[in-house]
Amino acid sequence: MTRKPTIAVIGAGKWGQALHFALSQKQETFITSRTARDIKNFTDLNTALNCDYLIIAIPAQQLKSWLQENFVFKNQKILVASKGIEANTGEFLNEIYADYVPPSNIGFISGPSFAAEVIQGLPCALVLNSTSKKLYDEFSPFFPTFIKTYYSSDVIGAEVAGAYKNVLAIASGICEGLYLGKNAQASLISRGLVEMHRFGKNFGAKEATFLGLSGAGDLFLTASSPMSRNYRVGLGLTKNKKLDEILEELGEVAEGVKTSEAISKLSKEHDIYTPIANEVKLILEGKSPQDSLKDLLNS
Length: 299
Known about the structure:
The chain is α/β, with parallel strands linked by helices. The protein folds into 2 domains: 7-153, Rossmann fold; 161-298, N-(1-d-carboxylethyl)-l-norvaline Dehydrogenase, domain 2 (Orthogonal Bundle). Helix content is 52%, strand content 11%. The chain has 15 helices and 7 strands. Strands 2-1-3-4-5-6-7 form a 7-stranded mixed sheet, sandwiched between helices. Helix 3 (60-70) links the parallel strand 3 and strand 4 (77-80). Helix 7 packs parallel to helix 11 (229-237) and helix 7 (155-177) crosses helix 13.
């Protein structure tokens, strides 16, 4: 009798719980996190790490230390559900994982997907990005019928898009909070897409990635709705709230905050023109949103 593959989600934030719900539609799926949760099939980390297939939904800024302290490679097949760039080093997540997992065993999830809608079973489409098509073929049958999956080999493109859109969502929330109008918001998002592509192209990303689900799709979703944590950060910044206060009210990680630091760092190192991301970083550090608007309009 053939043994059924075992699957676990590591990280029980909203996105981790949504993926656990989705994968549980077809097969038993475990989930774990640092603190115990009252979730079906919640298990300890050691049990989870011994599963054949892992979905890792740990916040990007915590990833490096988590891997150093906890991870042992046992030929697991892994999908990364985190989105961000390491702020301290400017490393992309695939670069961090490269020290622990061979490229053939790892893929990265991208695409427009609010956790709150996934956990309701509402339809969406995701891209599984990996240099290994075989990995996609193994993972895609695990997803429920309400999630359509696509394959892409453009790992760096998916990573840039998934990280950058959170920064642009903060900018879009600021735009909304300042009551600048839909013309301005549409202009910001579309120019943001150009900026995102310019940044990604420098690291070898493919143009098509930014026109599809991973790029335009995820950006338009995240930068147009208060369901987005990063969008709500932008709104909060226009209400003269301190960043710490905003993040405390959120009660969740807003990846765009630290990612703006990483993008600013990398754009300076590689001489990439990233005016929107740069202004977001400055606003997060205390610059007036009105002054940033003037500077963007005059740049």
